[in-house]
C-alpha cells in the first residue's frame, strides 16, 4: 500500500503541456485525503475515500510462491513484490499513488493518465521477474468500474506511521475481487518482450534478516468471513489492534538501532539484477563497490553532504511498513509467546463465530526490502515481511482453514 510522498502541482498560474495538466488534475485526489496517525483508528469508515470511477487497480502476485518459499527463496519472492511498486513509481515519474506490498505481490491504484505507463511497467516487471528471478508473476489492471459493477468498492485512506510519509490502506472488498479476477485470467497484462527491464532505481535489499527480540516473529493475516457482520468484524480488528498496541513499540519488528547491516550484503545479487546497463558481472561489481561505500558510512557514522546516517536509520525504523489494511489486516510482529497466544485465542473464537478467516505464521526473523529513490529525502519506504515464509505462508494457513 503505498505511497511515496510527492507534493501536488498547484492549479492555474502557468500554462502547461497536456502531461503537466494531467499531473495537476489527477494528483490532488489522493494527496487531498487527510493523513491519520493512530493505527487504532484504522476501521473508521470516515477515513476512507472512494477511488474515482475512471481509475484502475493494479494487482500482481507470484505463481506458486509456496514452492519458492519451500525452496528458501523468500528474498527473491519479496524482491519481486517490491519491484512492482518501484517500477510503477519510476514509470509515472514519482507521482503519488496508493499501493500496498503483500509479500509475494503488490496492489495499487492509478489515475487514467498513468494507466499506460503502469501497464508498461507491469509488463516489464513480469518479464524481469521471470528472466532474472526465475519466478512467474501474474499481473493485471482492473477498471474500478468493473469492480463496482459487482457490488464492491475500492476506498482508500492514508496512514502516517511517522511525519515522513504515509501508506495507503484499502477497504471495500475491491482489491480482493481484483486479485481473484487476476487469478481467473481476467484483465491480464501480457509480459513485455524478452530482455525488457523495468526501471527499478531505488530498489534494494541490503539489510540482513532481523532476528526476533521478544520471542518470535508472527505474520498475521485476517480477513472477513463470507457473510460476516461488518460491525462484528470491525470490533474484532479493533480488539486485535488493541492487544498489539499494548506490546512494546506495538510489536514493531525493526529495533530502534535499525536492522543489521553487513558487507557484502546477502541481497547483492538481487540488487545487481535490478540494475540496468552492462553484463551482470559488471553490475554486481558496481553494486559491491557502492554497498561497501555505504557500509563504511553507516558503520562509522560519517556525514556525507546532506546525508546523516543516524537520521537515516531513525527514518528506516519509523517508515517500516509492518502493519497495514488492504481488505484485511496484515501485520508482521515481534511479539512474546503470551501475545501470540492471546491473538490466536481471540482469532480462533471469532472464526468459530463466523466473523473472520485468518492465517498465522511463526518464524524467528523478519526481513526488509527497501525502496529509496533518494537517501536525502525522508520518505523512503521499507517493506517488512517474515523471513521464513511470512505473509505468503500465513495466506496458505488461511486457505487451509477454508478447506
Descriptive notes:
The protein is an alpha+beta fold. Helix content is about 40%, strand content about 20%. It has 12 helices and 17 strands. Strands 9, 10, 12, 16 and 17 form a 5-stranded mixed beta sheet that branches. Strands 1, 2, 7 and 8 form a 4-stranded mixed beta sheet that branches. Strand 13 and strand 14 form a beta hairpin. Helix 3 packs antiparallel against helix 4. The longest helix is centred in the last third of the chain and has 21 residues. It is globular. The protein starts with 17 loop residues before the first helix and ends with a helix. The N terminus is likely disordered.
* Helical content class: 25-40%
Query: pLDDT average, as an integer?
Result: 91
**What Rg, in angstroms, do the CA atoms define?**
20 Å
Q: Alpha-carbon distance between the termini?
A: 28 Å
Helix count equals 12
Instruction: Find the structural class using helix and strand composition.
Output: alpha+beta
Low-pLDDT windows of residues = 1-26
Secondary-structure element string: HEEEHHEEHEHEEHEEEHHHHEEEHEEEH
Strand content: 15-25%
The overall strand count is 17
Major beta sheet summary: 5 strands, mixed
**How would you describe the shape?**
globular
Label this structure with key terms.
four-stranded mixed β-sheet, alpha+beta, 12 helices, five-stranded mixed β-sheet, disordered N terminus, 403 residues
Give a nutshell description of this structure.
Helix content is 38%, strand content 21%. By secondary structure, it is an alpha+beta fold.
